[in-house]
Structures are given as C-alpha cells and as structure tokens.
Give the backbone structure.
Amino acid sequence: MKKENIIIALSIGIVFSVGLWFLNNPGNMDIGKIISFGILAILILFAILTIISRIGSIKSGLTVEDELSKKLVKTAASRSYYFSLYLWLLIMYLDSESVIETDSIIGAGILGMAILFGLHWVILKFVGIKDE
Amino acid sequence: MNSRIKELRARHNLTQLDLAKMVGVRRETIVFLEKGKYNPSLKLAHDISKVFELSIEEVFGLE
C-alpha cells in the first residue's frame, strides 16, 4: 500500500472514530463541541493535503520546502498574529460583558489564532505574495 | 515584477518541473513566478537567469 493511502486511511479513521464518539454521546453534544469537531476535521484535511503535496514533491525529485513555502508560512504567521491582537481585544470585551470560564476564553483565543493563520495561508496561496 | 520565464521555458523545451528541479524549488514556485504572484529572491533570480544563459534584467523586469 502506498504511503499516501496509509495516511489518508489513518486520517479518515481518526475523523470517523471521533464522529462516532460524538454521535454515541448525544447528551454531551453542544455547539462548542460540534465546532471543535469541525475545526479538527479541517485541520486533519489540511494536514493530509500538505503531506500528499510533500510526498508528491519528493517523488518528483523536488525539494519539500523552498523560499516561497517558507515565506508563505512566515507572512501568514505575522499577519495572523497582528489580527489576533484585535481578536484578543474582542474576547476581553466579551469577557467583561459576561462571565465566561477562563478555559473557554483561552481555548477560543488559541482556536481563533489557528483559524486566522489557516485563512491567511489559503488567501496567500491564491493571491500570491509580493513585497513591492 | 514581470518575468519572461514562460516564454524562455518554451524556447528551451523545459517543463515547469524541469526548471524547478534545475533551480531547486517546488513547481508551485515556478507557477507563482510565471503568473507574477511572487517576486523571487536575488539568488533564485540569478539561478533562473543562469539556466537560460541570460542576465537577470533580461529575464525579470519591473512592470
């Protein structure tokens, strides 16, 4: 079996198992958990696509990481950090307006930062990156 | 920044994959350069120009 197939099979297995676990615990299901599961699924899909792309590059005899891929990650990270400052301000404001558990605040902040990074990375992939 | 990579590649019968291998980058980087979505580093611009046996100015130019 090819490496890609093993990775895809494993990832689908993990998503399927988590999905089954959620479905078998209907009492514990809430919007927060469903969103967490959705984000987890997106992250796993993102990892699968990245791994497949890297394996494809290796097979073609190309480098796995070059100046463009490094720059994409660096730019996405710096932009997501900048925007996450506003996100944390928003979270602090929401916290002052209502009582939210500390764990939830930190979790929402980290999740938000991860989503911002992913969004910027995808946008840069489509739009390109120019330092002019 | 615009480039003549696509035109020069066709003239030298090179695929994007061939050129990527020759200059040590991923194929995606060549695609980005051809579409003008990425400005290369000086080293990469030099390496690509060397493949086509031209100067950097002859391969890359400002719009």
Remarks:
- Strands of chain B lie at 2-3, 60-61.
- Chain B has a mean pLDDT of 91.
- Chain B touches chain A at residues 1, 17, 20-21, 24-29, 32, 35-41, 44 (CB under 8 Å).
- Helices of chain B lie at 5-11, 16-23, 27-34, 42-51, 56-59.
